[in-house]
Amino acid sequence: MEKKELLYEGKGKKIYSTNDEYVYIAEFKDDLTAFNALKKSQEDGKGALNCKITTELFKLLELNGIQTHLVEKLSDTELAIKKVDIIKIEVVVRNIATGSLTKRLAIDDGKELPFTLVEFYYKDDSLGDPIINDEHCLILNLVNDVKELDVLRAMGRKVNDILKPFFYEKGLTLVDFKLEFGKDKDGNIILADEISPDSCRFWDVKTKEKLDKDRFRQDIGNVKVAYEEVLRRILGENR
Ligand code: UDP
């Protein structure tokens, strides 16, 4: 596959066109950003870890009936992905209260939620990704109708139903995570972007140690060691 033009550079990835009009290449970067890119750093090898983790998780989801944009892994940091129109909604799924939820609603950090919460955020950095409801999504024309929002919610819950027990088996609590979806050339809504410690929170079941980007957000350190540990657990080496 021939890598052509750089189409887009985001905080964590670069997207290139290829000689196949329906296939793009996503290149995972070593950059770390938080708080809407107010805090920035670099971590050698982070891109390769997120690329591998995303590949493993997308393959697991595909095996369980979730369509994703993954075509194949091309190198340590590159994936061939299906071209999609990204839906500008960040779908956040939460099992345990932490982060912005605790700040917004004064819910105790670490409280297990009585049921899985799905939230929508408007994917717009200039606005700081504000939380939005169904009607905002329709007014902003982010989807065609409420049925599409129901698909996003259902897919978010299904991803959680697959990943939560998968990680629990490996000694990790899946606290919360963010998903992005896109429409493929046939109009199907499929899972896009990435699933990695940049976009999820993982806590060690026994020690409650954070093994995700909160180590960077909160200056805990050893970010790469934590991401390596998540990959090690995914690959089946239990604690
Ligand atoms: N998240 C993300 N990108 C964002 C915002 C959030 O990947 O732009 C992830 C974040 O890593 C966490 C979940 O979504 O796993 C919920 O994040 P939260 O709303 O608590 O925001 P934060 O505390 O990161 O501001």
Compose a concise summary of this entry.
The chain is an alpha+beta fold and 239 residues long.
Description of the molecule:
With 239 residues, this protein is an alpha+beta fold. The protein has 2 domains: 80 residues, 2-Layer Sandwich (Phosphorylase Kinase, domain 1); 137 residues, ATP-grasp fold, B domain (D-amino Acid Aminotransferase, Chain A, domain 1). The protein contains 6 helices and 14 strands. The strands form 3 sheets. Strands 8, 9, 10, 11, 12, 13 and 14 form a 7-stranded antiparallel beta sheet that branches. Strands 1-2-3-7-6 form a 5-stranded antiparallel beta sheet. A hairpin with a 4-residue loop joins β2 and β3. α1 packs parallel to α6. The longest helix has 24 residues. The protein is globular and about 50 Å long. Bound molecules: uridine-5'-diphosphate. Uridine-5'-diphosphate (UDP) binds next to β9, α2, β12 and β14. The site of uridine-5'-diphosphate (UDP) has 13 residues, from β9, α2, β12 and β14.
Architecture of the largest domain in CATH? 2-Layer Sandwich
Order of helices and strands: EEEEEHEEEEHEEHHEEEHH
Share of β-strand residues: 25-35%
CATH domain fold name of the largest domain: D-amino Acid Aminotransferase, Chain A, domain 1
Structural class: alpha+beta
| Cα-to-Cα separation, first versus last residue | 39 Å
CATH superfamily membership of the largest domain: ATP-grasp fold, B domain
Shape: globular
Helix content: 25-40%
Domain count: 2
Major β-sheet, in short?
A: 7 strands, antiparallel
CATH class descriptor name of the largest domain = Alpha Beta
Q: Determine the mean pLDDT.
A: 97
Continuous helix count: 6
Rg estimate, integer Å: 17 Å
Bound molecules: uridine-5'-diphosphate
Low-confidence segments, given as residue ranges, are none
Number of strands: 14
